[in-house]
Amino acid sequence: MNLPNKLTLSRILMIPIFILLLSYPFEWGIWDIGYSELPVAHFIAALIFIIASTTDWVDGYIARKHNLVTNLGKFLDPLADKLLVSAALILLIEMGYAPAWVVIIIISREFAVTGLRLVAAGEGIVLAAGSMGKIKTATQMIAIAILLLHNFPFSYFGLPIGIIMLYIALFFTVLSGIDYFIKNWHVMRDSK
């Protein structure tokens, strides 16, 4: 197993720890962060999320730069991204930091694009992520990280930047989904 695939696998292995930190009421203390409070367990979970999100960029960069792209990596990388983002968004609903309807739209888009990729794969076509998809991923990761940090550092100013970023992520999620289907509709039209 090459380094990019190990990084992707490490991202998948971080997800249960991340979930546990946000699901179990650890009594490690709470920090006052302006107009809000941040439990230490949530801070650690946010750091894990940020590290895991960073490995997404690093493993792709290494794989492309050193020609280490593998079928295992093509399978694991998007799976790891979807598992991490979905887990975070669902937990943010439970914590009261994300509206369920926004999360449903974001996760539905991921299922739809995955379905299109499966149809394409059945036809022997590989559909690469476009620049809109990369913007979508970046805005989602930023929004989730800020929300996991209970809007820190913007909480000192009373600015709801986390939820604003989530709506920006929603916009790019929908836009990139539409763009992806328009560019690749031939796969559905021409499938046997």
TrEMBL record:
Annotated catalysed reactions: a CDP-1,2-diacyl-sn-glycerol + sn-glycerol 3-phosphate = a 1,2-diacyl-sn-glycero-3-phospho-(1'-sn-glycero-3'-phosphate) + CMP + H(+)
Keyword Nucleotide-binding: no
Pathway listed: Lipid metabolism; Phospholipid metabolism; phosphatidylglycerol biosynthesis; phosphatidylglycerol from CDP-diacylglycerol: step 1/2
Database matches in Pfam families: CDP-OH_P_transf
EC number: 2.7.8.5
InterPro entries assigned: CDP-alcohol_PTase-I, CDP-OH_P_trans, CDP-OH_PTrfase_TM_dom, CDP_ALCOHOL_P_TRANSF_CS, Phosphatidylglycerol_P_synth
Class of enzymatic activity (EC top level): transferase
Keyword annotations of the record: Lipid biosynthesis, Lipid metabolism, Membrane, Phospholipid biosynthesis, Phospholipid metabolism, Transferase, Transmembrane, Transmembrane helix
Membrane topology value: Multi-pass membrane protein
Record's subcellular location: Membrane
TM segment ranges: 12-31, 43-62, 83-105, 164-182
Record-stated family: Belongs to the CDP-alcohol phosphatidyltransferase class-I family.
Function: This protein catalyzes the committed step to the synthesis of the acidic phospholipids.
Protein name: CDP-diacylglycerol--glycerol-3-phosphate 3-phosphatidyltransferase
